[in-house]
């Protein structure tokens, strides 16, 4: 789970793109799956 102000006002897809951009190298180098739960502060878990 990732909680960040950067996700405020963003759609689920936009949030996933932000996370994927950060972990792109790890995904390319062997990680084949990633579960993402990206929330803005104050959003219910």
Automatic annotation (TrEMBL):
This is Cell division protein BolA. Gene3D superfamilies: BolA-like (3.30.300.90). Belongs to the BolA/IbaG family. The keyword Protein biosynthesis does not apply. SUPFAM superfamilies: BolA-like. InterPro entries: BolA, BolA-like_sf. It comes from the Bacteria. Pfam families: BolA. PANTHER family: BOLA-LIKE PROTEIN 1, PTHR46230. It comes from Hyphomicrobium sulfonivorans. GO terms for biological process: cell division; iron-sulfur cluster assembly. Keywords: Cell cycle, Cell division.
């Amino acid at each position: 789970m990732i909680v960040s102000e950067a996700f405020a006002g963003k759609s689920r897809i936009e949030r996933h793109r932000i996370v994927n951009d950060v972990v792109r190298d790890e995904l390319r180098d062997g990680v084949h799956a990633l579960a993402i739960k990206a929330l803005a502060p104050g959003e219910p878990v």
